[in-house]
Design goal:
The complex is a heterodimer of chains A (784) and B (158).
Chain A (H helix, E strand, L loop, with lengths): L14 H5 L15 E7 L5 E6 L1 H4 L4 E6 H6 L31 E2 L5 E7 L2 H8 L3 E6 L6 H4 L15 E8 L1 H9 L3 E9 L11 E7 L4 E6 L4 H11 L8 E4 L15 H13 L3 E4 L2 H7 L6 E9 L5 E13 L26 E10 L13 H18 L4 H8 L8 E2 L5 E2 L4 H12 L4 H10 L3 E10 L7 H6 L8 E7 L5 E5 L8 H13 L6 E4 L17 H28 L6 E4 L2 E4 L5 E3 H9 L14 E6 L8 E10 L6 E11 L6 H21 L30 E6 L16 H18 L10 H8 L4
Parallel strand pairs in A: 1-12, 10-11, 14-15, 20-21, 27-28
Antiparallel strand pairs in A: 1-5, 2-4, 2-6, 3-5, 7-15, 8-13, 9-10, 9-12, 13-14, 16-17, 18-26, 19-20, 19-25, 22-23, 23-24, 26-27
Chain B lengths: L1 E8 L2 E8 L4 H8 L18 E4 L2 E4 L12 E3 L12 H8 L9 H14 L5 H7 L11 H16 L2
Parallel strand pairs in B: 1-5
Antiparallel strand pairs in B: 1-2, 3-4, 3-5
Helix pairs in contact in B: 2-5, 3-5
Classes of the chains: A alpha+beta (784), B alpha+beta (158).
């Protein structure tokens, strides 16, 4: 290992610009002649409306006001959902129209009804108050279970009963049979609280139209600019794909919320063409709260059947998932294929069955948020397992151990469609127990008790499916796209390298890790490698960043392109060194004739390829520039065990997280420093969900009560202990790098671990997330 | 109505004519094109916009530009000298104290004010001080390590 190669904790290339204020985020971009868009939004969760924009158009600085009628007139389509779910009845999910601007009905607080475009942001915002919208409010429903009630207000006339789909996976009959053999059945109702993503950079867009070439450039806060281009072009039909360039520059965090194709970005691009001027929109935080796709929001009933020794016989789960008012880009697959397929957990449970109802409500659309389905699944499985251990009076770690899929059982076909590729679950459990000092827990509990505090310990042995995904598999399950990734590795004539990747980086450090990969495999100095991403005019067609796929899929595409570079370089070197191609070895950046000291470094090979004076021109084209697409053979399956300890103050219900041990298996690591950082951030997101964060709507009015950072509690620095991270390596057997993905693990593992610790401390399972001091105090004092 | 605001920004005299309601952060970003200072919220919670005004850390979204007339303002762009990072910036790079980088300028500027007041802060003091800075990426773990390391480097540097 070199100090900048695979496995080294190299300091990040991108940090210099971020630390000196030279990052270029969306709102930092300004174009000559730009004007500003401000969206008029519904203050009602459900209403019909009429709209008149004449007064606003006369306000100072106003250039135009557009409403839903203008969008219809322009022939633009609605926003789409890219994954078709086929229900129990064999029918596709219900997909009501999702207009860019509402036409005659609004369906959530924040639903856009008009856009005002003016010379300045302030003028647009002022004029927005003069847009006359007459609303006739209607009854609204925000809870997914209430929405299924026969008398519930209907969100869409073409989705009767507010049901988008009723879907199932697993063998119901086999699971029922397993329950008949049960010695004990553990049952819990579990609510997975609704979260608001809150990347610190708000969404933003800048549309620019070139009338000379009829091209639109859309600068946008996107995790996947080509997907945005594809949807805006092929489905919304703004302009043909080759006339639309989408640029995603430095992005201030995504966490899933910047995967999706939203109204505001699309309207900004369209308006730029209408007005022949650049149009800029930057969300205010309150707009982020109202309109960034939310996450989670499940209500589940789960039952786990065990035999007398504690072996898991069957798991049955019934879930109602809130999809919000309209279907966001990948809304349908999150509570189905990204959720129920993980119900096997790390265990040999003999039969598993899960059914999910996806439900429309008068709330912001719900879609993928860090973990996307897998945190919800882990919360179900790991709370059930912990509860079963308590019911059976067994040690929670031991109960897990006797049910773990053994490390020699891979590949392991689950009862819910996935085939796990590799893993060592007992190994991670061993590491976690050592890291937390499990043996010392009883003593620590006594010490806490002596100071009047209740100490608890909680486990979460999580598994996730990452590196999404084999295109043929997801296609057969209803995905509207392929899920490969692309890369181009280009030597420049002077021997340095530009890498073009489809994996967008918005905090993950790809510019560093991908350069490490290339440096390691091609022997080019780390500083001579530049990584380019986020611009459809520069990179090959690509699927982008989500689901912890960048290294496993995007990195594998780079590895494939590197292989092609080496193969071509070998031919060039063989010609120059006058040797047979099969006698050329490539190591550490040098092509050497086997058994001799005749060699040629790769920079010289590159030079020869671009100045082909002495070159095998009859056999090879000039140039050293190779592209590759990588379509994975399977998902990857990162897994591990997180254990945490809490202290609860029984007087106030306050929970202090006092110890956190994360034992993860991400396969091979390219940059351990970055991996640890990803775990820290993921754990923080999960701790936020378990302790602080919870989107609240007022029941009848559908008003968003948690609409600002003053009402929605975000994790802050003072709630965390030292997060201890350890990894083991069980390489992924089917991608060229042996890597699995690490970006979501913490968010997946943490909520179950933390709630298990709290319920251990307070001695009751009757607590919901976020476990606020009030809820904990009430749970402790239920009899009082 | 407009108002003329003059200030010393990162050691240089600058002046701009702005609407009276213009916030300091907007003056910096939109008028003076110093875009290193960011806006992450509309309620003065997130801290992405922290700058120094006359040596104190301030959320530049809570101050009218006019209130900074005549002031010395220091932003993230003013820290590195001749391409050399300030020890606090260097500590963030060394300790992976940033991921997406959006909250980072505000966190660094806030940290410098802490160290100015408390040259040798404890971990708990650092965590408490960061109450006004939100980060969604790092879990704060490496931010805290960075600030402790940056403070140490600054003590050594005199």
């Amino acid at each position: 290992m070199t100090d900048t190669g695979i496995g080294a904790s190299v300091r990040r290339k991108e940090d210099y610009r971020f630390l000196t204020g030279k990052g270029r985020y969306l709102d930092d971009i300004n174009l000559p002649g730009q004007c500003y868009a401000y969206f008029v939004r519904s203050p009602h969760a459900h209403a019909t409306f009429t709209i008149a924009s004449g007064k606003a158009e006369k306000e100072p600085g106003v250039i135009a006001v557009f409403t839903g009628a203008d969008i219809v007139k322009a022939g633009l389509g609605g926003l789409i959902c890219g994954w078709v779910i086929t229900g129990k009845n064999g029918e596709p999910h219900k997909a009501p129209l999702h207009p860019l601007l509402a036409i005659d009905t609004v369906r959530y607080v924040g639903d856009p009804v008009a856009v005002v475009i003016a010379e300045s942001h302030a003028q647009a915002k002022d004029a927005a108050e003069k847009v006359e919208v007459k609303y006739e409010p209607k009854p609204a429903v925000t809870s997914p279970t209430a929405a299924l009630d026969k008398s519930a207000p209907q969100v869409h006339h073409d989705a009767p009963g507010n049901l988008c789909y009723d879907w199932e996976i697993g063998d119901r009959a086999a699971t029922d049979a397993a329950f008949k053999k049960a010695h004990h059945v553990t049952k819990l109702k579990l609510v997975n609280n609704r979260l608001i993503p809150n990347a610190i950079e708000p969404r933003a867009a800048l549309g620019d139209y070139n009338s000379g070439t009829d091209e639109i450039t859309l600068y946008t806060t996107s995790q996947n600019p080509h997907v945005a281009r594809l949807v805006i072009s092929a489905f919304i039909q703004l302009t043909p794909e080759h006339k639309l360039r989408v640029v995603a520059p430095d992005i201030g965090g995504g966490f899933g919320s910047k995967i999706f194709i939203y109204s505001e970005e699309t309207v900004s691009a369209w308006a730029a063409r209408e007005l022949k001027r650049p149009v800029k929109w930057t969300a205010e935080r309150s707009e982020s709260f109202m309109t960034d796709a939310h996450g989670r929001d499940h209500v589940s009933h789960a039952e786990l059947a065990l035999d007398k020794n504690g072996k898991f016989l069957g798991l049955k789960v019934s879930t109602v998932a809130n999809l919000g008012a309209y279907l966001s880009t990948f809304a349908t697959c999150v509570p189905t294929y990204l959720y129920a397929t993980l119900m096997q957990g790390q265990y040999t449970t003999e039969a598993v069955y899960c059914e999910v109802k996806g439900v429309f409500t008068h709330t912001t659309p719900v879609d993928a948020l860090r973990g996307a389905g897998r945190p919800e699944a882990t919360y179900v499985v790991e709370r059930m397992v912990e509860q079963a251990a308590r019911d059976m009076k067994m040690d929670a770690a031991k109960l897990r151990r006797i049910n773990f899929i053994p490390s020699d059982a891979f590949p392991y076909q689950t009862q819910v469609a996935l085939q796990y590729d590799s893993g060592n679950y007992a190994g991670s459990m061993d590491q976690a127990l050592e890291l937390i000092d499990y043996k010392g827990f009883a003593k620590r509990k006594e010490q806490s008790k002596a100071s009047g505090r209740l100490r608890g310990i909680g486990f979460s042995a999580y598994i996730e499916a990452c590196g999404i995904a084999p295109s043929a598999v997801v296609g057969s399950l209803g995905a509207g796209v392929g899920l490969y990734e692309s890369a181009e590795v280009r030597f420049n004539p002077t021997g340095n390298v530009t890498v073009f990747t489809g994996s967008h980086s918005h905090g993950q450090g790809h510019e560093t890790t991908f350069a490490q990969l290339v440096s390691d495999k091609l022997g080019v100095p780390f500083d001579n490698i530049e990584v380019v991403h986020g611009d459809t005019a520069r990179i090959p067609f690509a699927m982008g960043t989500y689901g912890s796929r960048s290294l496993a899929v995007g990195g594998s595409a780079i590895a494939k392109a590197i292989d092609k570079i080496v193969a071509k370089g070998r031919k060039i070197a063989a010609h120059t060194l006058e040797a047979a191609e099969e006698d050329i070895e490539f190591l550490d950046g040098n092509f050497t004739v086997k058994g001799t000291d005749k060699k040629m470094d790769i920079a010289s090979v590159a030079f020869s390829a671009y100045v082909p004076h002495n070159y095998p021109s009859d056999e090879l084209e000039p140039g050293l520039d190779e592209s590759a697409f990588y379509d994975p053979a399977n998902f990857t399956f990162p897994a591990g065990t997180h254990v945490c300890e809490v202290e609860v103050d029984p007087e106030t219900g306050t929970v202090d997280v006092v110890k956190w041990a994360a034992a993860d298996d991400f396969g091979n690591l390219v940059n351990p420093m970055i991996v640890e950082g990803q775990v820290h951030g993921g754990v923080a997101h999960g701790v936020g969900q378990a302790l602080l964060e919870g989107c609240q709507y007022e029941t009848d009015s559908g008003q968003l009560l948690t609409g600002s950072f003053m009402d929605y509690s975000m994790p802050r620095a003072d709630i965390f202990p030292d997060i201890q991270v350890v990894t083991q390596v069980t390489p992924c057997p089917h991608n060229p790098l042996g890597v699995k993905g690490c970006g979501e693990a913490g968010a997946i593992a943490a909520p179950a671990a933390l709630i298990n610790a709290i319920t251990d401390a307070i001695g009751t399972s009757n607590i919901t997330m976020p476990a606020t001091p009030e809820k904990v105090w009430r749970a402790l004092n239920a009899g009082r | 109505m407009t108002v003329t605001v003059s200030m010393t920004l990162n050691g240089k005299k600058v002046s701009a004519e702005v609407e009276e309601r213009t916030l300091l952060v907007s003056l910096l970003r939109d008028h003076l094109r110093h875009t290193g200072t960011h806006v992450g919220c509309d309620t003065s919670q997130c801290g992405a916009c922290v700058v120094h005004v006359n040596g104190k850390s301030v959320k530049s979204c809570t101050l009218l530009a006019a209130q900074a007339d005549g002031a010395h303002v220091l932003t993230i762009e003013g820290l590195a000298k001749n391409g050399e990072l300030h020890p606090m910036q260097e500590a963030f790079r060394d300790n992976h104290g940033l991921q997406c980088g959006f909250c980072t300028p505000g966190v660094v500027m806030s940290a410098l004010d802490l160290v100015a007041q408390t040259p040798d802060p404890s971990e708990r003091e650092v965590r408490g001080w960061l109450e006004g800075n939100l980060c969604r990426c790092t879990g704060y773990h490496n931010i805290v390590k960075s600030i402790l390391a940056g403070a140490k480097a600054m003590r050594k540097g005199g």
